[in-house]
Design goal:
Layout: E1 3-7, H1 15-22, E2 28-31, E3 40-44, E4 47-51, E5 64-67, E6 72-73, H2 75-87, E7 97-99, E8 104-105, H3 108-120, H4 132-140, H5 147-150, H6 153-174, H7 182-196, H8 203-207, E9 215-218, E10 258-264, E11 267-269, H9 281-290, E12 303-305, E13 307-308, H10 309-318, E14 323-327, E15 337-346, E16 349-350, E17 362-369, H11 386-399, E18 403-407, E19 415-417
Parallel strand pairs: 1-9, 1-10, 2-5, 2-9, 5-7, 6-8, 10-14, 13-15, 14-18
Antiparallel strand pairs: 3-4, 11-12, 15-16, 15-17, 18-19
Helix pairs in contact: 3-4
Length: 418
């Protein structure tokens, strides 16, 4: 069954582990947006694998992974990630990893511009400073460098010179920073281009004859980091919702039958921006400590809060979610009381429609009795504590979408069908 998987919150929902689980029944795994600001973690036999650009499906033998045209690629980071995975015993070759020739390349000036813009902003975004946004800016401005340009010596030289002619005066005159040398960038990045060239593949041509295969489309970040539908301007620079899966992969001929939305049993976000159910003090410390809520990409501590079902309801609609995946249910173990946001108030009135600005709303909570038994060892829904089952059932009822999978720990096997 062809499946799209997206995050329903602000990212970090545990998509990497879920992708790894779903890969058992998939042939092709395609990443369709974002850059190395993503951090998908999979734990196998106590060994941790962290993915930033390579689809986590590469851990499964016999699977083909692809990086779609909607992804922006830092070639140095990608090569380092591939080499790191190889050292961990993961097989990576041009047979099981394909990269679209239409991916745009993150260049050194993108990362510098990212940091400088963030530093000058009156309203901080909380960017990862990895050059993702400026690379997408160049893509839309039609001055970006694509993989197909990158692996062509003459095209790369021409485009790099053209870009530096614009970027260097901007860096020097506006930001007071030293410009970049063409020769040093060109010589370094030519090596990256040669290393990646064997992996470049026109995904449309390659997969069209294979369209009967089972495809799994892997999203990065989460719905409320979507450039259009997220908490703008505190968002990422790409379209995160499921509707972008076919556009960001170039595989519009693949009929999608199932759209899975992943959400934690509570809520987290990294960076700036509104967060209605955000916690402070002891409860924040509890979730950060027990849930290991620190970014896989940046190491930054995540902001934490109670589950927000109003937010999830909008995310479900935005991606036409057919099934839910709830992760990290075990982190709620031992709490006497658990709160869930079921409505918002604005100026002491209950909001009847989803607000376009979350910064001025107050959460309305419903309280649930917690559970003392651990969810961690459960491998079926019936083995969960009664209160945990009630919690899951309430989520289903509120969102009018069935929970298909539940994850209760970081181990590969700690996930099961409801």
């Amino acid at each position: 069954m062809n499946t799209v998987l997206v995050g329903l919150q602000w990212g970090d929902e545990g998509k990497g582990k879920v992708i790894d689980y779903l890969c058992r029944d998939s042939d092709v795994i395609v990443r369709f947006q974002g850059g190395n600001n993503a951090g998908h973690t999979v734990v196998i036999d106590g060994k941790k694998f962290v993915f930033h650009l390579v689809p986590s499906g590469v851990l499964r033998k016999g699977k083909v992974c692809a990086i779609g045209n909607g992804v922006v690629v830092d070639p140095k980071v990608l090569i380092e990630e591939m080499e790191s995975l190889k050292k961990q015993g993961v097989s990576i070759s041009a047979r099981n990893l394909k990269i679209s020739p239409f991916c745009h390349i993150i260049m050194p000036y993108h990362k510098i511009m990212d940091a400088l813009r963030e530093k000058r902003r009156m309203q901080k975004i909380g960017t990862t400073k990895r050059g993702i946004g400026p690379c997408y800016v160049d893509k839309v401005s039609r001055c970006g460098i694509r993989m197909v340009d990158f692996i062509n010596e003459e095209a790369f030289a021409l485009k790099l010179k053209d870009n530096l002619a614009e970027k260097n005066p901007l860096l020097e005159k506006v930001y007071g920073e030293k410009g970049f040398s063409f020769d040093s960038i060109y010589s370094e990045y030519r090596k990256y281009a040669q290393a990646l060239k064997p992996y470049i593949c026109d995904l449309t041509d390659h997969f069209y004859p294979l369209k009967s295969k089972r495809f799994l489309f892997e999203g990065a970040q989460g719905t409320f980091l979507d450039i259009d539908f997220g908490t703008y301007p505190f968002v990422t620079s790409s379209s995160v919702v499921a509707g972008n899966a076919l556009l960001g992969s170039g595989l519009s001929f693949v009929p999608v039958k199932r759209i899975l939305g992943v959400a934690k049993a509570y809520t987290t976000r990294v960076g700036e921006g509104p967060f209605p159910t955000e916690l402070k003090g002891d409860m924040l410390n509890y979730f950060q400590s027990k849930g290991s809520e620190f970014g896989a990409t940046t190491g930054r501590p995540r902001r934490c809060g109670w589950l927000d079902l109003v937010l999830l309801k909008r995310a479900v609609i935005s991606s036409n979610i057919t099934h839910l995946v709830i992760t990290k249910l075990d982190i709620l173990d031992g709490l006497e009381e658990i709160k869930v946001c079921t409505a918002y108030k604005y100026r002491n009135k209950t909001c009847k429609q989803f607000p376009t600005d979350l910064s001025c709303v107050e959460p309305v909570y419903r309280e649930f009795k917690g559970w003392s038994d651990s969810c961690n060892m459960a491998r079926s829904f019936k083995n969960l504590p009664l209160e945990a089952r009630r919690y899951i059932n309430f989520i289903e009822e509120f969102l009018s979408v069935k929970v298909l999978f539940i994850s209760v720990g970081e181990k590969r096997e700690a996930i099961f069908k409801k």
